[in-house]
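ok new one. same drill as before - structure tokens go in, u give me an amino acid for every spot. 107 of them this time. try not to just spam alanines like last time pls lmao
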């Protein structure tokens, strides 16, 4: 099975973080409900105020993510709302999950 992890780092002005996270939550709930999304987590930086990183894991390949997942209608709804809040260009990294090195404990 293909497992790919997408790491997206977005930076907004610190004073807009609450509004930005609200948009991320709405978008994330829709993305996480997709059948190929295995997990979606959101992190805020301790070192850079306003920096948010999304870590998503899918059981589809990069082509699917770029051509089909990002074409979902809800992305077209939220990207225009989020874009004006960004103060830096987004950073996106695609990573292959190494199954032998996956551990998770329930906190």
């Amino acid at each position: 099975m293909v497992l790919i992890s997408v790491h997206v780092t977005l930076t907004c002005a610190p004073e807009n973080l609450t509004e930005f996270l609200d948009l991320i939550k709405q978008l994330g709930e829709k993305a996480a409900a997709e059948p190929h999304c295995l997990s979606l987590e959101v992190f805020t930086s301790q070192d850079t105020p306003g920096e948010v990183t999304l870590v998503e894991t899918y059981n589809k390949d990069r082509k699917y993510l770029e051509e089909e997942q990002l074409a979902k209608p809800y992305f077209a709804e939220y990207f225009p709302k989020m874009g004006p809040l960004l103060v830096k260009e987004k950073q996106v990294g695609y990573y292959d999950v190494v199954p032998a090195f996956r551990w998770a404990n329930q906190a």
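The first strand starts at residue 4 and ends at 11. and btw The beta strands are 4-11, 37-44, 51-58, 91-96.
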